[in-house]
User: What shape does this take?
Amino acid sequence: MYVVATAGHVDHGKSTLVRALTGMEPDRWAEEKRRGLTIDLGFAWTVLPSGRDVAFVDVPGHERFLGNMLAGLGPAPAVCFVVAADEGWQAQSGDHRDALAALGLGHGIIVVTKADRAPDRVDAVLAQTRTELAGTGLAQAPAIVVSATTGAGLAELRAALDRVLAGLPEPTAGGRVRFWVDRSFTVKGAGAVATGTLTAGTLAEGDRLEVLGEGAPRPVTVRALHSRNEAHGSLGPTRRVAVNLRGIPAEVIHRGDALVTPGAWPLAEVVDVRRTTGTELTQAPGELTVHVGTATVSAHVRPFSARHARLVLDRPLPLIPGDRLVLRDPGSRSVFGGAHVLDVDPPALNRRGDGTRHAAYLETVPSTGSARLEVARRGAVRVEVLRRLGLVTEVGEVTGVTGGTEGRAAADEGELTDVRAVGPWWVHEPVLAGWASRLRAAVEDVAERDPLAAGLSRGAAAEAIGADPELLDVVITEAGLGLDGGYVVLPGGGGGLGPAEASIAAVESRLARDPFDAPEGDDLTTLDLGPQALAAAERTGRILRLDGGVVLLPTAPARAMRELARLEQPFTTSQARQALGTSRRVAIPLLEHLDARGWTRRVDSSHREVAR
Assistant: This one.
């Protein structure tokens, strides 16, 4: 199926044209039929001479219903732009032109209607329409003159539609789904139904999806699918689809919500954009109304330049770089302009001059985004994030990515220079080199300040370089460093206990025989174990130091708890000391240590119990 939206001024015969082409009534509401005025979206379909199925989304032309019009036009891949011969180009003709220009619609047909009412005006109206559409995607569109009343030109229009639709790019049937909902209702015995235009991906019975709207995402399951009032097990693009959903009531789903493949789309609340049409963004009011798909949201505007701005949306939307937005001034019923989404996860701009620098950066970003620039900006990014952003496609070889087997660059990306694939990550080579340099300096500093230090712990190392801990191993290798017992060390070791190793081993041997027989101070002095050596041993997890100079094994608290749990609760310090077979010198700091960890607690001044 092919989907075509109408566009044009109110009362120029859009609904009458759809009715003549399809034999179906697009107006759905009694109020529309009573007033002869389209208020909301209408739907009809037919088969063209070639056998192509085509569905029409009929939109209202009145200025008060511009939001409804944009909900119908937004997801449509082609348009019938209607101008009446008797009235010619009118105000809403201009608004609809501005909307399709903002959306970048480049496939369609110009239809001059009501030719029977003003045959002498047809040529002039068509010439003016061509002038008004210059600079839009319909500048070179075919034009057909018709009269829905007499039927004149309808055959030519059907043939022209056939040719236009044959030239549409092939939609992508595989991959993720983003289905913008344009209406929802309940079918008795079946439950919630959401309708919309499926432009990419495939829906099938049993599919698990998420509804993205107000509030948190809601999981749903596809119960059934219909198109043209016929049931289908699965449906691909482009097509008008009614999706019967399980797991959600119809009143929770609204126009502007999206049915999406779970976890496959970024939810954007702050976006950087580039103006494509309309007024310069420096002239924008503080708030704009943003239309995308069938959604309408308010947005706070922070202009960077005439071409670039940041929009803070009232609610998050499933957006990716390259998406087209229509911008409207809330105080006006006309279109302010159009914009491309450049970044759906932009950096915070808090320092003086950040906005100016960021505007310069945005000038370098292609309209569909850039995997290379995204990796360079972030330093490192998961390939799955790039895939959700639409910046890489399926898993495959990447030209220019060192070790690149985790993703394939989008078709227009070109070579991704200075990028290395590290497992599920892409890392910017200059950033990796900087991390390696900082890590080596940090490890060398620790070794210089404290020769008995075990090295730099993994957590401290990741924090020192500001990288995700998952990337630490490749940074360690890049820096020419090693790992010893979970610590980053200089090549050839480091992080050992040196001369203190034998003495610590002796303490360990003693405590292995009797876990609570802590060596006295004189014993430690005889072993030449001073505070620095003991601290080094504790850092490596070899011993546990308690108040009063008590030294035990790290396993001592757990072993003590097993013994204390066997006592009648609560117990005294003396009972604990006897159960552990140790002295008050050891028992008191050990019990205080257990209290601090929350494993035991005081009942009164002389009793404790095991915490439950």
